[in-house]
Amino acid sequence: MARMTMIEAVRSAMDVSMARDDNVVVFGEDVGYFGGVFRCTQGLQAKYGKTRCFDTPISESGIVGTAIGMAAYGLKPCVEIQFADYMYPAYDQITQEAARIRYRSNGDFTCPIVLRMPTGGGIFGGQTHSQSPEALFTHVCGLKVVVPSNPYDAKGLLISSIEDPDPVMFLEPKRLYNGPFDGHHERPVTPWSKHDLGEVPEGHYSIPIGKADIRRSGSAVTVIAYGTMVHVALAAAEDTGIDAEVIDLRSLLPLDLDSIVQSVNKTGRCVVVHEATLTSGFGAEIASLVQEHCFYHLEAPVMRVAGWDTPYPHAQEWDYFPGPGRVGRALAEVMEA
Predict the structure, then answer these.
(1) Taking the model in full, what pTM does it have?
(2) DSSP sequence for 178-239
(3) Where is each Transketolase-like pyrimidine-binding domain found (predicted)?
(4) Predicted confidence (pLDDT) per residue in 35-61, tens digit
(5) What domains are there in the chain, each with its CATH number?
């Protein structure tokens, strides 16, 4: 089986989808001849032509508005927002138009678009290239929100997203593009070519949206994470020696609540980890659901480990970034409660 980086896996998903369905189109800023700022679309324009993979003006609201119109016409746009931080000018189009078309038309129209966007920090990108805005989308009825943590999932989930009849926000943790970063920034990163989840089938396959995966089985505490934080959680469990069960959500909306409840009822303890700011982050929703559904099984309060309630600080990136040390301390605290 081929081994791919997450960049190559995302590109392969678009390639496979474009080959199978002429209605799939790819566009965004610099995605054509240049192949995207992270090279995720490299070679697609040469293979499929300028009418199916093309560059757009620097206008996120224009990109998303055009995609919505194309979707209503019958096409399946898979568009790139160059960084998740840049999606704010298009937020009105995303939330007021794309998310509501199915409801406003009583099901006569759908909006099969995918909005790909690199998310998260860990690359010294500063305040405007490091944000994690997933909670802004999970609050909106009509959207689906997907966050893969590895190349295998990235390809299978992106294919499912492209084939989905409704709008999907596909957030790609940029710190994972080339390897499974575990938060130990002082160590070399193992490339995906040496990781089992770097093995990616070259053809078509899909992973259902809304199904979590157990990355590590355990009985002492449940750690719920997504994206880069999955690897941080695994490192924290390894560093501390605590028998933690690590759940990779993969999809935030729809959410695999059954897997969460089953795990927390088994372990009796729960730590939620995400990179976004703490207040009103998606971890608050998870903590609330755990309290509602697992209250009589809990042996300790649900804990959250997240970014600070500040803009992403360039000069203090590794203090802000929820690394394995912070997660490990949370694991120890819930075990002592």
Answers:
(1) 0.97
(2) SS---S-TTSPPPPGGGSGGGB--SS-----TT--EEEE--SSEEEEE-THHHHHHHHHHHH
(3) 4-179
(4) 999 999 999 999 999 999 999 999 999
(5) 2-200 (3.40.50.970), 213-336 (3.40.50.920)
